[in-house]
Amino acid sequence: MIPGATAASFLLVVILGAMSPGPDFVVVTRSALTGGRRAGIAAGGGIALGVFAWVVAIAFGVAAVLTASAVAFTIVKLVGAGYLVVLGIRAWLAVRRGEYRDLEETRTAKPTGAGAAFRQGLLTNLLNPKVAVYFLALLPQFLPADGATPQTLELAAIATAGTVLWFVTLAVVVGALRRFFASGRVRRGLDAVMGTLLVTLGVRVAVEAA
């Protein structure tokens, strides 16, 4: 078992890491704005599942193989970058279509569903090999000298809980402010900003050195 103090420290580090701006943050924020609190929470749940999958992969050595292979790392990185760009282009297309009306006036625009938001969160995280690098560097700092797979899986559960805690909080806050963003003009501006951020992040991931 991981000592309580160590588990608490690891949880804090995971939450602080999740709070840093990045693709996960943008996906949850946009999901909450376009689909409400439920969609934002679903996107956060997908991201948390992705974190769990990465840490489990590390426990079984899969992520170590990925980060050791420059070719595999580059392939996953480019696929992930492409996915972020696609999400950004979708936001831009919504801006170009210009089908924005105040939420109080119409409900005809199809909001982001929880299922779609969950898939976006999951894929955004799984297609980001930097998550594997992050946890490969982080986990040894919190594992005992004789740490084995069970301890790694315990940290995976803690990492998942921390990720859920932060992104659920983010989704609830953004969802609560959704009425503020009810204006069609504001929503159009937000889609333009979010789309630009996603495309920029995708390009940065693609050109970044491994």
Biggest sheet, open or closed, and with what strands and sense? none
Question: What is the radius of gyration?
Answer: 18 Å
**Amino-to-carboxy terminus distance:** 34 Å
Which series of helices and strands comes N to C?
HHHHHHHHH
Taking pLDDT < 50 over at least 5 consecutive residues as the criterion, the unreliable ranges are 102-109
What is the overall number of helices?
9
Write down the overall mean pLDDT: 79
User: How would you classify the helix and strand content by structural class?
Assistant: mainly alpha
Q: What percent of residues adopt helix (DSSP H or I)?
A: over 70%
Global outline: globular
In terms of DSSP E residues, the strand content is under 5%
Tally of DSSP β-strands:
0
How does this model look, in words?
The model is unreliable at 102-109 (pLDDT under 50). With 210 residues, the protein is mainly alpha-helical. The two termini are 34 Å apart. It has helices at residues 4-19, 23-35, 37-59, 62-68, 70-97, 114-126, 129-138, 149-176, 184-207. Helix 2 (23-35) packs antiparallel against helix 6 (114-126).
State the main characteristics.
210 residues, mainly alpha, 9 helices, globular
List the helices and strands and how they pair.
Blueprint (H helix, E strand, L loop, with lengths): L3 H16 L3 H13 L1 H23 L2 H7 L1 H28 L16 H13 L2 H10 L10 H28 L7 H24 L3
Give the structure's gist in a few sentences:
With 210 residues, the chain is mostly helical.
